[in-house]
Amino acid sequence: MSPILIIIIIFAIGVVVAGALLLGRPSKGELLEGPPEGVLPREAGTQALDPDSLDGPEIETVEPVAGILGSSVAITGPELTAEEEAANIAAAEEAEQEGEDARLAQVAEEAAEDERPNFLERLAKARSTFSGFLGSVLSRSQIDAESWNELEEALIRADVGIGPSQKLLDAVRVTVKENGLTTSAELVEAVKDQMKADLAGPVTLARAQTAPTIWLFVGVNGVGKTTTIGKLGKRLTDQGDRVVMAAGDTFRAAAAEQLGTWADRCGADLVRGEEGGDPSAVIFDAVASAAAKGADIVLADTAGRLHNKTNLMEELSKVRRVADKGEGTVTEVLLVLDATTGQNGLQQARQFTEATEVTGVVLTKLDGSAKGGIVFAIRSELGIPVKLVGLGETAVDLVDFNSDEFVDALFAQD
What is the pLDDT of residues 121-176, one digit of tens each? Predict the structure, then answer.
């Protein structure tokens, strides 16, 4: 065999060996798994311990040769017992299950967001009150006296109220004059912008710095007060809060049972008293129970007999005073109103505010009402923000009030 051929063969073998070594070397930027926590590596060439004498794994680090060979790790030590091996497998399975649970929770959260009702779909009935008048206004190319008359009539028919309607349109007239608006489309947009600005405000339910937080719910019978507590409790427990429900409406026989059903459904604790008992005592006990259990929030139902009875208002005032004396803090007093009652709901709001210092309104059955303007009337006349609205029967249909979505849905042209 010629010397040249021998040299070529040797060179080829060298290339193959070098390529194999390079393939085994970690790529640039690749993360290497480090040694187990608490185990220090032993330099190559030092004396290794007898494997049977080791309490844990011993790691020997071999440095790269000529910058080509990657570091290698040799682990020696006693073999795992059957119990240790089973524990390792269980830990791995638990970690895998936690990852799967997190993934499923994210999927459920995204699904819940998809299920969230929107104002545009659910306010068709209230929108129908506006649509005829808006169509007439928009049919004109220019703003005229009739445009203002039809807008005012539309607002009053939707239960915005005479005073708030006039106040709103007076502000819009200023905008029209200052900005030189001339078309009917510009007029309608100006009305929408003014309503959004007047309705804007924080809707987040306040929490105490130190648990438990107490939210009191007030309102006459039949407005959906107990159901609202149940739906809100479901939302809170789904978010990870520990909730205690207080059945403070001791004068309505079915109230405690209804609240108990919701508590079972959403995993909340329930505190109830004797039928006809002192509502304040029930709520005080619920707050004490929440503090003892480390609960986050107390949702307290209250009596709801006819709002024109003086003793009911005195009773609610007492409930508030007693609730503040316990270990928790009252941060919200939410007045629950039925949107279908219109201006009668505004009268209820006035009386309950005098008795309990209402901090926000929950407007139920808004999807079934043609009188959506009550939202604006409450905000305009009493300065009380609407914080939650009911747009359907299920728990996810109780949503945070959004002034922009509400006004856009009210004025939308089908």
Answer: 878 777 777 777 778 888 888 999 999 998 998 888 888 888 889 999 999 999 99
N- to C-terminal Cα distance for the chain? 93
Three-point CA angle 36, 41, 44, nearest 5°: 145
Identity of the residue numbered 69: L
pTM of the predicted protein model: 0.70
Q: Which position has the token pair 């808006």?
A: 134
Query: Which tokens go with 91?
Result: 């830990």
Q: Three-state SS across the chain?
A: CCHHHHHHHHHHHHHHHHHHHHHHCCCCCCCCCCCCCCCCEEECCCCCCCHHHCCCCEEEEECCCCCCCCCEEEEECCCCCHHHHHHHHHHHHHHHHHHHHHHHHHHHHHHHHHHCCCHHHHCHHHHHHHHHHHHHHHCCCECCHHHHHHHHHHHHHCCCCHHHHHHHHHHHHHHHHHHCCCEHHHHHHHHHHHHHHHHCCCCCCCCCCCCCEEEEEECCCCCCHHHHHHHHHHHHHHCCCCEEEECCCCCCHHHHHHHHHHHHHHCCEEECCCCCCCHHHHHHHHHHHHHHHCCCEEEEECCCCCCCCHHHHHHHHHHHHHHHHCCCEEEEEEEEEEHHHCHHHHHHHHHHHHHHCCCEEEEECHHHCCCCCHHHHHHHHHCCCEEEEECCCCHHHEEECCHHHHHHHHHCCC
Per-residue model confidence as pLDDT tens digits over 43-65: 545 555 555 555 555 555 555 54
Token couple for 257: 């049972």
Closest CA relative to residue 383, chosen from 351, 338, 349, 409:
349
Distance, CA of 183 to CA of 144 (rounded, Å) = 9
